[in-house]
Amino acid sequence: MEELLERLLEECRPFTGKGRVADYIPELAKGDPDALGIYVIGSEGKHAWAGDCRRPFTIQSVVKPILLLQALLDNGAEFVTRRVGVEATGKPFDAINAGDQELDSGNINPMVNMGAIVMCSLIHGHSYDERFRRLLGLTRRLAGDGEIGVDEAVYRSEKSHGSKNRALAYLLKFHGLLEDDVEEVLDCYFRPCSIQADCRALAHIGAVLSNRGRLPASNERVFPAAMSRYVNAVLMTCGMYDGSGEFALRVGVPAKSGVGGGIMAVVPTRMGIGIFGPALDRKGNSVAGIRLLERLSQELYLSIF
Length: 305
Ligand code: GLN
Fold this sequence. Notes:
This protein is an alpha+beta fold.
């Protein structure tokens, strides 16, 4: 497996030159566009890796499936579906999913920013600080790393350059889809986006989702199997935003990208995969990362279709 990963990584490295690092906030613009790493954790607990797989980066939107899991654990599937919907938007992650017509929960979706902001308000806790701490606890468990924390510089950058997300949150509030104080909810969105992870952490999260809610090594259950079916289905249809259709054709597994360059991929019953490649395409997905997943999928017949 290591040899295969090394070979594919070198083959895909030139694709880093086809993308650009995110620059919507100054902190992310400092990313290394040439970096590329992969980490795989098999359902039987075996680890394999190649490239820049232990370099830290911010999880960004890869936290959305974790927000969804926490919201599901706290409220159940019916309630969550009623509040954030499940239909693909076919639009960019920060799109304003409303025109002149009424914005309703059926056209939000948990894998885009509007849905993620609503999900922050669904997490249980006496304060937003407590909600975030509960989410961080779940993230640490899923990632198999109790040390994971927030990159403070990225968090400050998100908070001080978050006008678009503020606009989305106020729109949700105007349409009656967000009840709490916008700044408090947003703080609980910016902090999760700024959680620092690496490919190993993402592979571990993917492995739990591929293992129907059980930790890969201990087999300990973190969430019910029905929730992994829910989350994996949403990842399959919208995890790569408006690139989800093409990703389904090229790779064919549930996955979630983030603008920090991460991709977390789930190969149901087989493995979790973590990718790091900060050079992004126009949709905010890692160019070389997708290519690497495509090649791995071809070599190991990973597509679920
Ligand atoms: N922090 C980013 C934002 O809110 C997350 C988006 C992403 O990773 N696609 O815009």
